[in-house]
Amino acid sequence: MPKPVALKLAVCSLLVLSQAVSASATETTTKHVVLITIDGLRWQEVFAGADERLLSRETGGVRDVDKIRNEFWAESPLERRTRLMPFLWEVIAKKGQLFGDVDAASVVRVTNGRYFSYPGYNEILCGFGDETIDSNAKRPNKNITVLEWLNQNVRYRSRVAAFGSWDVFPYILNQERSGIYVNSGWQDLEVFDDERDRKQWNQLANSLPRVWTGVRYDAFTARGATEYLRVKRPRVLYVALGETDDWAHDGRYDLYLDAALRSDQYIQELWDTCQRLDEYRNKTTFVITTDHGRGDVRDGWKSHGVSVPGSEYIWIAVLGPDTEAIGQRMNVTVTQSQVAATVAALLGEDFSALDSRIAPPIPGIINGSEK
Q: Distance between CA atoms of 124 and 146, rounded to whole angstroms?
């Protein structure tokens, strides 16, 4: 067979396969997905609020105990968790789904066996744990993320973007190969509706003292992501918040709680922004999770990893037009690796077809799928 003819047949075969994969996916109302991660935020706080054992200077490094107790403590865990994350519990829990309350037999497990950031983000974004990723070193990810895969599709090309507080995200997302827009670390924010706002935010970021050289404050990440959404209108936006993990490592439980509350506020601001835009209103799904758990003993809350029991347990929340308002999902076990295919499935795409290692979407997230 002449080479030009063979090439044409190969191209046609690929197009047919691509159409078949797309056709096999479920038709959804969701046209946009916002994936959000809150680094190292424990399921214990998400489902039960502030831990009284840590509301002290001795165990939690709390500087003003009365102030923190006033803000976050209540006898009822239901009230505590609502004080900590009001949008999660007053909106998402009522209109969406939550997974990960181990005490209610709702388990979300990390499968990568490492239980720290780079392996966790790889698992979230690529759909499987990779044992060869054994550090947080700035090495380009050899695996293809769901963001890169979507960006290769003409329906999403140049409409996929990521904002991260941690400066390793350009490597996790392999920005050079994937072509995804990534803004992370202390990089200047570039896209604003108002040029004066852009200059003011960057001047502020460059004038503040920096507690961490590789992690910017979440306020800048969240504002940059919100402005980008308003101006560029991406179909897929990834927002990776980081302060919770860093304040925990620093032994400051008070600032860890503050960061969790602010994260909830940033999520609400993003959601409200979507509801104000015709293109996004009632056509956007939020998927929220974390990269790893933490320990649950006196000092274990500061750390995570193979040597820290409990680091393998995380949580997931979903809110959007295709997701039934069940609230807390009980008596269920899912994995971190299912997030990537879930993001794709919400858009009517089948990411699992790319690689046999990729875990399937979480059952019951999309109306009509098996619970």
A: 9
Domains parsed from the chain with CATH numbers: 29-354 (3.40.720.10)
Tokens 């759909």, located at residue: 127
H helix intervals, 29-90: 43-48, 57-60, 65-72, 77-84, 86-87
CA 119 to CA 113: how far, in whole Å?
A: 9
Q: Residue 211 has what DSSP assignment?
A: S
pTM: 0.93
* Strand pairing report for 181-184 and 160-164: parallel
Q: How far apart are the first and last CA of the chain?
A: 50
The backbone torsions φ and ψ at residue 364, rounded to the nearest 5 degrees and listed phi first, read: 85, -5
Report pLDDT digits (tens) over 138-165.
Answer: 999 999 999 999 999 999 999 999 999 9
Smallest CA-to-CA distance from 214 within 316, 112, 118 is with 118
The pLDDT assigned to 13 comes to 39
Helices (H) and strands (E) in the chain, counts: 16, 11
> Which amino acid belongs to residue 324?
E
For residue 270, give both structure tokens. Answer: 């993003």
Q: What is the mean pLDDT of the chain?
A: 94
Nearest in space to 97 (alpha carbons), one of 331, 334, 341, 320: 320
